[in-house]
Design brief:
Blueprint: H1 4-19, E1 26-28, H2 34-45, H3 51-75, E2 80-83, E3 90-92, E4 101-104, H4 107-114, E5 118-122, E6 125-128, E7 133-135, H5 141-152, E8 157-161, E9 182-184, H6 185-193, H7 201-210, E10 214-218, E11 226-229, E12 242-246, E13 249-258, H8 263-273, E14 281-283, E15 290-298, H9 302-316, E16 320-324, E17 327-333, H10 343-353, E18 360-364, E19 367-373, H11 377-387
Parallel strand pairs: 1-5, 2-5, 3-6, 8-10, 9-11
Antiparallel strand pairs: 3-4, 6-7, 10-11, 12-17, 13-15, 13-16, 14-15, 17-19, 18-19
Helix pairs in contact: 1-3, 2-3, 5-7, 6-7, 8-9, 10-11
This protein binds aspartic acid and magnesium ion.
Organism: Ferrimicrobium acidiphilum DSM 19497
Function: Catalyzes the phosphorylation of the beta-carboxyl group of aspartic acid with ATP to yield 4-phospho-L-aspartate, which is involved in the branched biosynthetic pathway leading to the biosynthesis of amino acids lysine, threonine, isoleucine and methionine.
Catalytic activity: L-aspartate + ATP = 4-phospho-L-aspartate + ADP
Length: about 400
Amino acid sequence: MADADRIRTVADYVARSKRRGDDVVVVVSAMGKTTDDLVRLAGDVSATIPPREMDMLLTAGERISVSLLCMALADLGVAAESFTGSQAGIITDTDHTKAKIVEIKPDRIKSCLAAGVVPVIAGFQGVSTERNVTTLGRGGSDTTAVAIAASLGATVCEIYTDVSGVFTADPRVVPSARKIPRISFDEMLELSASGGRVLALRSVEFARNYGVTLHVRSSFTWEPGTWVVEEEETMEQAVVSAISHDASEVKLTLLKVPDRPGVAAHIFRVIADAGVNIDMIVQNTSIEGHTDISFTAPKLDLELARRVTEDVARQVGASEVISDTTIGRVSLIGAGMRSHPGVTATMFETLANHNINIEMISTSAIRISCVIRVEQLETAVQALHEAFSL
Ligand code: ASP
Ligand code: MG
């Protein structure tokens, strides 16, 4: 909903869905770059930015959207009422700027629906168990939508975005990338966790846990997009379904860590307690009782991660902490990998043929990720897309 025109277009679409006879609940996100602008403004005003105040600030963006959309709906003769996250009964924990939903009390939304009125809910926000306004982390409107859909037992949660679905790779990097008609929750989860920017990770977790069918589609063309469903319901049984890439992480390495039981436990406990979400971890073989440990973390958490890691390095007697901000991660995702050996070898061969050095590797049953130099990321994605004939 970038501008007034778009808001009227969305209102028109909602009005048509409603007239078709569907009960609809709408969750909206902030207009255009509003959230980014508010984040910037906070930075211009303050060096400390208390998280509680950041949340109060950011929720304003979605409030603007819900009220304007309801006004546009009123002009079309559709009865609609706006709700903040708090009014919609979205109760979260107290972790400001990345709160988790703990409960939804949708009674106001249900009575609104029962009265034939369209509830329009501000995405990305809730109220904490301590009654403060919270936000769910960037991209959190998806999570709001899925959570509301789950709590109402909706048939489908349609997520309208600026792309027409989930693609076999980012079409800006691989122009021949295809739209995937159906993908499983697990694959979508791995995609979102490894740099796929289409859906917020939390929203996919929620959808999988509560079995909410998702339909990711474009709010520009309204054409059918990608369905995210249970694995049995996916039609394509490709070995590799998609290739994702992520340049938003940094690598931190602790050098010469004493190799004793309990040291890694201590390091990662301290880092976790500081709220840093770490991802890949690699530990070297021990040489003379010492080892190196590297891990990746979001770039956004770099300052915090570095501070905490340096503290903990001193505590355990590691010699030094190095941070590397020029890494990129490329991942292959596919449920078919479980039963097809050789995918890893083909991936490594493809990277080798393009002279790409692999710095870290991590795998799950349906994903293989490699950390490489960030400047080789696009080449890697293109080469793998071709090697696996996506
Ligand atoms: N407005 C929030 C953000 O930009 C939430 C969202 O877009 O889903 O992150
Ligand atoms: Mg957004």
